[in-house]
Amino acid sequence: MDPVLSITVLSVLLGALIALVFFKSYFSKRRSEVQSIAEPELQPDHKKKAAKSSQTISKKHHTKTHSHASDKDQSKKHHPLDVNTLKGHGDAVTGLCFSSDGRSLATACADGIVRVFKLEDALSKSFKFLRINLPAGGPPTAISFADDSIVVATHALSGSSLYMFGEEKTKTTNETKQQTKPEIKWEHHKVHEKRAILTLFGATASYGSADGSTIIVSCSEGTDIKIWHGKSGKLCGSVDTNQLKNHMAAISPNGRFLAAAAFTADVKVWEMVYSKDGSIKEVLSAMQLKGHKSAVTCLCFSPNSEQIITASKDGSIRIWNINVRYHLSEDPKTLKVVPIPLRADVALHYDHLCLSPDGRILAASHGSTLQWLNLETGELLDTADKAHDDVEGYRELHKFLLFRSLSVKSLKSLSDFDIFDFYPFELMADCEITSLAWAPKTIPMGNEQKLVLATASVDKKVKLWVAPSLHT
């Protein structure tokens, strides 16, 4: 045989042998790791005592082979401002809002259910809630109170829908107490054609000759924004930002102004003019907020409706005075510019803003990071880096999705592997905040009355946070 050929064949055989030994060692190691995790759950009843004696060793091995274990234990430590968690949602919570008295908190969940929690005490171990099943179709994307009723936005392939749920009182008898059940009072479909509704904001119209009705503003992912009468569902007006795409829109607490954050650095503001009978007569372009150098991602109004707070991708927050005589061409003024105090290794912009009812504390979020700022000084009061980080919720969801897509014969069931073998802990634990809102009034917390912030996330939970103390 040719010596060169012999050497070549020998090299190939030797390489194959080395590869075989390597992969055998690797898969044996992986199998032992999976078994070490599954072992405690597979112990039969007559071996429970033996399992207890080996539990310490098993836990130590788990910590070493899976670094997420220590991180997971760390995540259970509550932030000092985190006072409670509303559980029971079956999927991501996409929106939330408080009633005008702050005693009810409505949540929209991707499981197709709206839950209205009664907040008798923010420290309660459990909360009563009213369950509203949405019509079959797309999941809810936004929610808002309209007096004692609730308006919900949903989205399907055919487009967005709006539903207003009111309470229908049932007749009482001597044996049964009076009960209420929600029913649809009005509904609209394809309100923004096939575009999804990003935000839904409501306000009590109290400016000028307004009659005190609730006005609802729906903002699409396109460029259009529509204004609705909360009780009747009548379309009162619409505007177009003409800025490629919207990020969000909000209405001032007194129902006078409408402002939109869109694709550009300028914020457009409209005024709703009311007729003598209290209805909206027209919607006029009022002013533009010019000063940011990049797109404005979110905004909110002050409680007195005289200021707008904006956050931009240029890394700054601006506070604007809009209580100007714009009819006489008086421009809105920038009162303060504050740098966004996020870490340098993340994008310097906020996703959500909300100002406390006393106008002093600005709550802001980016991803799963939640921050509180003193609006007057711009000082950062506190930060919750991972405000929502329920690893277990993500673990079970992604395990199912991954298991369904894998074609590995050795995986017989979900218990045969851990999701963190495939995804790093850092990606799984970062649960984005989808919505935040302050209770419009203080609510009971033990023996005290406190300002409370609520946050929703894709981790299936809603958290309640007490307002931080203002530094003096």
Automatic annotation (TrEMBL):
Keyword terms, alphabetized: Membrane, Repeat, Transmembrane, Transmembrane helix, WD repeat
Alphabetical list of Pfam families matching this protein: WD40
Bias kind Basic residues: ranges: 58-67
TM region(s), chain numbering: 6-23
UniProt WD repeat ranges: 86-120, 289-323
Region Disordered, annotated ranges: 37-85
Coiled coil: none
Protein name per its UniProtKB record: Transducin beta-like protein 2
Organism (species): Xanthoceras sorbifolium
